[in-house]
Write a structure and sequence with these properties.
The chain is of the alpha/beta class. Helices cover 32% and strands 21% of the residues. The radius of gyration is 24 Å and the shape is globular. Bound molecules: 6-O-phosphono-beta-D-glucopyranose.
Length: 494
């Protein structure tokens, strides 16, 4: 959990965003920096440089950034002023990623903006495909932009997923980056960790005594994580087809959520203590095999084209856009409790939620008639409408003893009225400047996550497994979920 850290970078920071003309930079990164800037959360001496290959004038660049800035935190009158002040600190540098020229020019511009000196700290954001990480880091280092850890000035790099395609390529990527940035200078971003409710999982679990004694396989029968999006790949096929849904959202976003649900209580709120427990939780998940999954690919439906009809996707693609995975967690706390993860694009709704399904009590009073109450369930709704909902059995008012399943609700909108929810990127970018790594992925976390999936991914590729087709805007292909037939009921605690 994020603690309040003092600034660990100097008051002068140069932030360089590579891939500055791309979608991620325009839609997420610059707007998040602007929000932090407009709230007065960035050091006074901050400057931004956008680096990309496109031939853009400063005005074109500012126009591109402007179109996505919002005034969520500023009253309208002062917002325009803040935008002007923000843009006056943003400069575009055109350059080829593999050639030195652009990097030299960047260094000159950084020095010129600070009156000839280059004393500022540096933060580099590589909003680029992973195959570019190594070459850009090398150039940064050779052109004295990336500084060694011992330098008085602080220098950090933020990298975006995908961090490899499997354990081997991820190790290679880690090894390449390590030549230029130490692990403590490297910030691997997973925006799900910046979502408020995902951070709240730790508080929910460890600050509320009521859940602690029942957070184990004795009381919990299974955990489900459901993730779906209404959008298909919509022109992003070039990237997506290389990775597929398992690498795109399961290996990172959903495994991160899962590790927070499964982990033991950390010794402190320090980043390494928390991450140690997350790694440990991931290491207790058994590696997946082909028999543990159902894969799907969307076909045309609801007037939308199918996956392979997207012009950016090869016509014979077998890449899954849907996956159902059944995992087993073999730790003392979880025995071999099942976890089911469902993730799909082009589905009937946009949703990300966790369901913790509790066991039924044995010989419950209300089962005598053969009509048992449903299990308790805790739903953690990540999006939309984030909140915690605890499903419990209640007596329906009336003359008969009829049980009904109702929710105890804690939705963020009603619990925190009027509170502006920060975007996940705002939280994470601020942490990267403060030097708080709690919400970033450590290299061993990455290794543990890939170890669960690599045998499966190899098998899928080797067998050229055909995904089942499902229609755009449907619930996905049919999946045989965990059967409750053999479930154990809960014996009263000894
Ligand atoms: C990205 C994936 O990491 O997360 C996308 O690459 C996905 O495919 C996106 O759409 C989902 O993010 P969010 O925050 O909208 O759930």
């Amino acid at each position: 959990m994020r603690a309040i850290f003092p600034w660990t970078m100097n008051q002068d920071i140069d932030i360089v965003i590579f891939g500055a003309s791309g979608d991620l930079a325009r839609r997420k990164i610059f707007p998040a920096f602007f929000s932090l800037f407009s709230r007065g959360l960035l050091p006074e001496g901050v400057r931004f440089y956008g680096f990309a290959r496109s031939d853009l004038s400063q005005k074109d660049f500012h126009d591109k950034i402007m179109s996505f800035l919002t005034c969520r935190y500023s009253p309208q009158e002062s917002c325009r002023e803040k935008m002007d002040s923000f843009l006056s600190r943003c400069e575009y540098v055109r350059g080829e990623y593999a050639a030195d020229t652009g990097y030299r020019y960047l260094l000159d511009r950084m020095a010129a903006a600070r009156g000839g000196g280059v004393s500022a700290d540096r933060l580099f954001y590589l909003a680029l495909p992973p195959e570019m990480f190594s070459i850009v880091s090398k150039r940064l280092s050779e052109n004295s932009l990336a500084l060694p850890e011992e330098d008085a000035r602080c220098s950090r790099v933020i990298v975006e997923k995908p961090f490899g395609r499997d354990r081997e390529s991820s190790d290679e990527l880690i090894g390449e980056l390590k030549k230029y940035f130490t692990e403590s200078q490297t910030y691997r971003i997973d925006h799900y960790l910046g979502k408020e409710i995902v951070q709240d999982i730790l508080v929910f679990r460890f600050a509320n005594i009521v859940f602690q004694p029942i957070w184990n396989a004795r009381y919990i029968e299974k955990i489900e994580i459901l993730w779906s999006e209404e959008l298909g790949v919509e022109g992003r096929g070039g990237y997506f087809d290389e990775y597929g849904i398992i690498r795109d959202v399961v290996q990172n976003h959903l495994f991160q959520v899962l590790s927070l649900l499964l982990m033991e209580e950390p010794d402190s709120l320090e980043a390494n203590d928390i991450i140690d427990k997350k790694v440990d939780a991931l290491r207790h998940i058994k590696p997946l095999r082909l028999r543990d999954v159902v894969l799907g690919q969307y076909s045309a439906g609801a007037g939308k084209p199918g996956y392979i009809e997207d012009p950016t996707v090869p016509k014979d693609s077998l890449t899954p856009t849907f996956a159902f995975l059944k995992l087993k967690v073999a730790s003392p706390r979880w025995h071999t409790m099942p976890v089911e993860i469902t993730a799909g694009k082009a589905m009937n709704e946009r949703k990300a939620e966790v369901r913790i399904i509790f066991r039924k009590p044995c010989g419950s009073l209300f089962c005598k008639t053969g009509k048992c109450q449903p299990s308790n369930a805790l739903v953690i709704r990540i999006q939309p409408d984030e909140g915690f909902h605890f499903q419990i059995a209640t007596k329906e008012p009336g003359t008969k003893m009829e049980l009904k399943h109702k929710n105890l609700d804690l939705s963020y909108i009603s619990a925190f009225p009027g509170k502006t929810m920060p975007d996940a990127y705002e939280n994470l970018l601020l942490d990267s400047i403060r030097g708080d790594k709690t919400l970033f992925i450590r290299n061993d976390e990455l290794e543990a996550a890939w170890d669960i999936l690599t045998p499966l991914l190899n098998e899928i590729e080797k067998s050229r497994l055909k995904p089942r087709l499902y229609k755009f805007a449907s619930e996905g292909p049919e999946v045989k979920r965990y059967s409750r037939k053999h479930k154990l009921c809960l014996n009263p605690p000894a």
